[in-house]
Amino acid sequence: MGKLLKNSWALFAGYFVLMVAHGFQGNLLGVRSVIEEFNFIATGAMMSGYFVGYFSGANTIPNLVGKVGHIRVFAAFASLASLSILIHAIFVNPVVWTLARFLTGFSLVAIFIVMESWLNDRANNRTRGQLLSIYLFISLIGLALGTLLLNFSSPEKYEPFILISLLLSSALIPILLTKRKAPKFKKLGFINIKGLYKTSPLATVSMLCTGVIHSALFTLSAVYAASMNFTLFEISLLIFLITVSGGIFQFPVGYYSDKSDRRVVIIFCTFLAALFCFLSILASGTTLENMYLATSIGFDKIMFFIYVALYAGMAIPLFTLNLAYVNDYIPKEKIVAAGGGMQIIFGLGAMIGPFLCSLLMNKFGTNGFFIHLLSFHLIIGVFGLFRITRRNYEDNPESTFTPLPRNITSLGIELNPTTGADISNSDKK
Predict the structure, then answer these.
(1) Which domains occur in the chain, in start order?
(2) What span, in angstroms and rounded, lies between the C-alpha atoms of 311 and 300?
(3) Rounded Cα–Cα distance for residues 220 and 238 (Å)
(4) pTM of the entire structure?
(5) Is residue 298 packed enough to be buried (19+ CB in 10 Å), middle (13-18) or exposed (0-12)?
(6) What percent of the chain has pLDDT over 70?
(7) CB neighbours (10 Å) of residue 398?
(8) CA of 133: how far to CAs of 153, 331, 416, in Å?
(9) In the 8-state DSSP scheme, what is residue 417?
(10) N or C, which end of the chain has less CB nearby within 10 Å?
(11) Phi and psi (nearest 5°) for 205?
(12) Sign of the CA dihedral 259, 263, 269, 271?
């Protein structure tokens, strides 16, 4: 482990700083959009812009890396991400912010692709599981700490935007100072949507809905909380609990999914998530006037935080559950390609998720946020019950649940030891 960290410290240091900035940025913009009185639809469109940029970049950046190299791509897009957050501070306009969020998403996926490609080169078949675990840990801790930076300064000031820009720029330093040569870039294929649906209808539909759910959860939670008069500390605490709970629950959920019918675990998790959404609505009140005061923490507020944390614990592992379930029905050599296809499906859902959620919030008020989440969980659960009647479960001991960061690309999925991908060419490192 020590040698592994020594060889990869620059990558992990840069990635950690990047995730702190990432965790801070999205939630800052959500709070600021409420302060600026952007309507829910404009805010939802702005947040969807990030995912449109992210998944547009996922399809174009690999070609660019192959042409100009890892370091140039990393430096260029880290600089662009640093610039885009300053655009938000200068031009406070929902249209400009939507374009800036597109640039942010495009830039960050470029950085993730470079990072994961580099990690693959550093790994071998013996160490890649350790690298993936470190990658997950740093992603979780970075995002969690980033949410707490909401308390750094008032969202109405320039300072938070400047801090994010500084963090994104400083993420460059360890990478640019590394003495190790950048690896040769390896392109990965993917299984198309039609092929994945034929292989596993439940995993495909569930992954599409999971994209809709997760994108809204991680971009509009702060908008919801700010609209309900939460203090900055309470907003940061809420997002912190969502992030940490979602990461921690991956381990027990994954354990039980490996021991039983994975479809049952998917259905169980998603129905429980729907229940906790409903309980969150009850705890919050139906109107702003009936909501607990943000100045005092009462029993209802405590219960609200508990319900949301439990919700995240059930909802966030769905991404990896879907990947594990589709892997139950494909050979090892196609797992990475299947992961690439599932990423595309997730991306299609993620691009529309915040906008769809904003329409419900505009129609039903702030709690439209939970109505959105609840509705798509019910779709997964009902479709899962239907699929159980159409197909017998086939146990595949070679397919196991491996916790993954939510921002992982198909290159990062290759680090999963269960993929069977051959990266033994890195043994010499």
Answers:
(1) 9-178+190-420 (1.20.1250.20)
(2) 16
(3) 12
(4) 0.89
(5) exposed
(6) 88
(7) 11
(8) 33, 24, 9
(9) G
(10) N
(11) -65, -45
(12) negative
